[in-house]
Amino acid sequence: MKHRLTKAAAALAIATAAVFAAPAMANAYTPSGPDSSTTTITPGGTANLTFTGFEPGESVTFTLTGENGAGATLAFVKFAVSSASLTKSATAAGAAPVSVTLPTNASGTYTLAASAASGNATQQIVVGSAAGGAATLPSTGFDGDGLLGVWIGGGALVLAGSAVAVAATVRRNRQNVAA
Q: Could you tell me which residues come within 8 angstroms of residue 100 by beta carbon, excluding any fewer than 6 positions away?
């Protein structure tokens, strides 16, 4: 009886340890991005970012998404798709470093996602100006000088239409007076 009680207590202790150890092990590999929630990179600039919390040696896929994401490079590999992707192995410490180079015409905000079997982490990348201030608005192709001809031509049409309307009114008034 004494041995059964000892075995039952040992089995209960092992079961309790297994219940509490599983979430602890799962939390041991919780991927996270760099220290700050956003990173600012100038157009054409490069930043080295490190994601942590992956399992040692685990394959981590990085995907950069944003305006002209195809023009960006990850770890100096150029891609010709709408978003750039790269797969690397995490270090023995569970870190996954990546080098991000934005295209020279970068603007807006990009999202860098690190995905692995143990979880996902993201990092926002904001495009800053070369002077270190806020990003400048991109050129949208508006050319005010090119519209000068449209304004002059439109004005000429309005004047010609007005002259025709006045001439028609004068002729109608002369016909009504003569009758």
A: 41, 46, 47, 48, 49, 64, 72, 73, 74, 112, 125
**Domain boundaries, given as residue ranges, for the chain:** 1-28, 31-127, 145-170
**Sheet hosting strand 59-65, strand order edge to edge:** 38-41, 119-127, 109-116, 59-65, 84-89
Task: Give the end-to-end CA distance of the chain in Å, rounded to a whole number.
Answer: 135
Tokens matching residue 16:
């309790």
Global pTM?
Answer: 0.51
Q: Which residues pair with 142 in a beta bridge?
A: none
115, 128, 149 from 157: Cα distances, Å: 62, 46, 12
Question: What is the residue-level pLDDT of the chain in tens, covering all 179 positions?
Answer: 566 666 666 655 565 655 555 554 544 556 766 666 788 888 888 888 888 888 999 998 888 887 766 556 665 444 333 477 888 888 898 888 888 888 887 778 888 888 888 888 888 888 887 544 444 555 555 566 667 777 888 888 889 988 888 888 888 888 888 76
**Domain 31-127 falls under CATH 2.60.40.10:** yes
Angstrom distance (rounded) from CA 74 to CA 76: 5
108, 66 Cβ separation under 8 angstroms:
yes
Q: Left (φ > 0), alpha (ψ -120 to 50) or beta: where does 57 sit?
A: left
